[in-house]
Design goal:
By secondary structure, the chain is an alpha/beta fold. The chain folds into three domains: 44-173, Rossmann fold, CATH 3.40.50.980; 208-376 and 389-418, ANL, N-terminal domain (Rossmann fold), CATH 3.40.50.12780; 422-526, GMP Synthetase, Chain A, domain 3. It contains 18 helices and 26 strands.
Length: 529
Amino acid sequence: MIQMNESPELRRVRRVALGDFVHRSALKFPERIAVVDGDTRLSYRQFDARSSRFAHYLIGAVGSGRQVGMLCANSADMAVAYNGIHKSGNVWVPVNIRLDVAAIDYILRHAEVSAVVVDEAYHAAPGIADMLARLGVPLVVTMAGQAGSAIAGATTLAQAEHGQGAELPGIEIDGDAPALIMYTSGTIGHPKGAVHSHASVAASVMGNMAGFGITEQDVFSGVLPLFHCAQHCLVATVHAAGACVVLLRGFVPDEVRASILKEKYTAFTGLPMMYGALLADPAFRCDEHMRMCIYAMAPIPKPLIPLIAERMSANVMLATGQTEMYPGTMTFRPLDHPDLDANYWGVSLPHNETAVMDDDGRLLGEGQPGEIVHRGANAMLGYFKDPEATAAAQKFGWHHTGDLGMWGPGGQMMFLDRKKDMIKTGGENVASVKVEAVLLSHPAVAAAGVIGMPHPRWTEAVCAFVMKKPGAEVDEAALLAHCRAHLGDFEVPKLVHFVDQLPATSTGKVQKHRLRQQFAELAARAFGE
């Protein structure tokens, strides 16, 4: 057996570090535009220099190997900052800014962050300033005004970069060391932090580049939030290829259409409802320069596919992924399989493999339903400070997705259902038990069942079915106000319906499949389907 000692020199030669992608693209394409953000256009030379300066600041301020939280919306500053975190050898902890303050506070504390990067505008959101003050760690403020930040004691990103060297920091980074912790929306209790190494994200980047054919000539959309794994990994892939990403703060159809045409996107990634909204304008088309349209998060309505093919790009595909298996994992091309329905996930990308497994760890063949499992270099290291959940997720040597599926014709994966009652609405995951807990905290509520029901825009709408306590008086408006006080906006039900009784098992567990059957017509009328 050949044995090689891994010396410090060999580790440097074989280094895998996420911050190196931007640096290498800057060496090859220094004047090519890396990031467009409104009127801001950063070349790779500028992007590399700015992120390295911020990395040097972080090394001086907190050292390396620490967790750095981030509360930001999409922006050039955000991309500079998280690449600086990668280059500094610290661990990036992006947080969904649409969560309620208590959930954000939990994540930052659970992650043991040593600093937080925050948008100045978001710092002014209700409860955020007080929460961060109680956290008691240094703040770096992005998108601050020209005169500096109005936040006492905070450092602006410009101030952090000022006077620092533009060269790549010379610190050692182990490819297997944690690079980021991205928190999932757990179905029970608090969210879990999926820890990814530099190597696991790099594997996904390389697989995406090959699987989607991304080159330095591409111009990609950046409309999905960068605090989610899907958009982050696509942007990381774009920057590894030396291509360009156009970052937008959110999805406003007129603004997105104008941006697509102005910047001549070659690739767009969005939710099915985004495509529907873009194509609602009959005059909109971009097929002269768009080469690829990726949809994600949910099956797409079949009538929408030929519209995308005709007016945007004939290269239409679904991309799947999971925070724990850095995306993408599988792709499906509906136009290549017109006889298969929209619930197909297709085949694996080159950096991972997929199987269907029964509860005893046996792999199943075509037509046999079971749990969808993956393995590959893009798998997470584990859940932060949760060895039991990690062991369960990695049982039998595969990552367990919690999704049910089976192999269909031609080796295509068919998605059947989620093992747990996670609701996917507008690109966000909503834990039904979390919404139920908030409803049950209202003094007039005796019982509640929360499910996702089909919605023409949001894919699924959060729907609550509520039993009042005897003699109690409460209406839909009051319950919605109660929910808004305790939940993120995307978690608030879009339908509240009062019932005399909830279908339940003998042990009192709400039978959600019966709720879906019982109220399918009610939801269809309510949502105009």
